[in-house]
Amino acid sequence: MNDNQFATLGLKESIVKAISDLGFTKPSQIQEQSIPAALEGLDLIGQAQTGTGKTAAYTLPIITRMSDASGIKALILAPTRELAVQVNDEIQRLAKYEELETLAVYGGDSIDRQMRALRKGTVDIVVGTPGRMLDLIKRKCLHLESVEFLVLDEADEMLNMGFIDDIEEILSHTPAERQTLLFSATMPAPIAKLAKKYMKPDAKIISVKKSSMTVSKIEQSYFMINNKHRLEALCRLLDLDDPKSAIIFCRTKIGVDELVQELQSKSYMVEGMHGDMTQTHRQSTLNKFKKGTLSLLIATDVAARGIDVEGVTHVFNYDLPQDVESYVHRIGRTGRADKSGIAYSLVTPKDLSMLKQIQNVTKSSITQRPVPTAEAIHNKKFKDMVAKVEEAINAGELTKFIPSAIELAEANDPISIIAALMKIKFENESVFDYSSNNLDAPKKDDVRLFFSVGKRDGLTPKILINYIKDMTRVNTSVIGQIDLMENFSFVTVNETVSNQILDKCPGGKINSKRVNVEVANKRKR
């Protein structure tokens, strides 16, 4: 019997299997409402905030309903190259048991490679930015006469970036009988007008109420790491804070099993919990955790949804989740009953865009902190030992130990005795065998940023530099190469100021054109 709730929505069995492989068993609100409507063939307007699972809400019905005809059958428009790549990757994961070929098309990547892929005639789904799609249409490489599904993802962002004319031009090349799915966080008048003009009169409107994603009582921090140091970074945090009750989140079931094995081999008292374990095993582990006989629990998002345990002091994101909603659910395991809690995330440079999205949606501050040094951990352990000794002295009840203490003191220096006892206790505790005092930080590289303004907006390098300087007050010496394109631009900046530019520069205007800024994909070499 399939206990995956996606199986009740009318999706193909092979797709439900792919969803289960990813660790998802319960659809989000937008998925639960959108998938059945889309499977009926209705045009759909879905309004929901970022991070609620919109991609799967339109991808799953498309994969289920797509015909076996030749040619491009689904066209998905996204405002940025980063989102296009993300959507394309997610489709490939969800369609792992299907014989589908997908292609992401966007500026900054080789248009010749994209043209060659399209000319083969084997591509089923194209995901891309409006500008590059229009370019490929004009070069007679992107043929849309067989399109069955058209998706506008983050439609309000495409409006803000000035793509509305490009979108209408692309729409004019698609069949009128196509199914159109429009998703947007907000519904400004131009988007509503576009929907009315290009969608069928019986289009279904689904609006998911903006959920409260407040995490105000939780102290959130992240630690920049090299991926090869992920395990040691976690151990350093565990050894420094010594949490009494903590949940460690991994993205996959295999990840849970591997981390449990690694930590148990280092004498940490830890067990795992995920969907492949029997109900009896999961319940036994949860009971230990609730009673406090188990201090560290490693779990997947799905396994942890039913955990409601008071007194969880820490949540560790060993891997960042794939959406904001999961992040909020994760860290919500701590800070309950009006108490404070601590949430730590291990982050590599490639996770920074997801981290920024989490901060934007939750409106919270996630502070970067350095991974603890071995010296700091040792000093904390020594300090804790001293505090426990003083507590025992103040509590009394030492009579039966005094004869042995006198015997030791007569034969040895008292300072040496204390140091030896501390050494014995220290070596018996679960402390990682640190090979160095510090972990190597990820190499600081320049960051290439995408700006949604270009030559046709009257942009020059001087205007762009002055805009960045006025919005952020950064020194112009941190601004490197500027590449001006017709509709957009790339700016290479020092990594130390990239987050400041990403925070301050979007939303302003250059020559009346609203500016959006994203991290660009690294150049192909």
Topology:
Layout: H1 13-21, H2 29-39, E1 44-47, H3 54-65, E2 74-77, H4 81-94, E3 102-105, H5 111-119, E4 125-128, H6 130-138, E5 149-152, H7 155-160, H8 164-171, E6 179-184, H9 189-198, E7 204-207, E8 218-224, H10 230-241, E9 246-249, H11 253-265, E10 270-273, H12 279-291, E11 296-299, H13 301-304, E12 314-317, H14 324-331, E13 341-347, H15 352-362, E14 367-368, H16 374-395, H17 402-411, H18 414-428, E15 447-451, H19 461-472, E16 479-484, E17 489-493, H20 495-504, E18 509-510, E19 513-514, E20 517-519
Parallel strand pairs: 1-6, 1-7, 2-4, 2-5, 3-4, 5-6, 8-13, 8-14, 9-11, 9-12, 10-11, 12-13
Antiparallel strand pairs: 15-17, 15-20, 16-17, 18-19
Compact overview of the structure:
With 525 residues, the protein is α/β, with parallel strands linked by helices. It has helices at residues 13-21, 29-39, 54-65, 81-94, 111-119, 130-138, 155-160, 164-171, 189-198, 230-241, 253-265, 279-291, 301-304, 324-331, 352-362, 374-395, 402-411, 414-428, 461-472, 495-504, and strands at residues 44-47, 74-77, 102-105, 125-128, 149-152, 179-184, 204-207, 218-224, 246-249, 270-273, 296-299, 314-317, 341-347, 367-368, 447-451, 479-484, 489-493, 509-510, 513-514, 517-519.
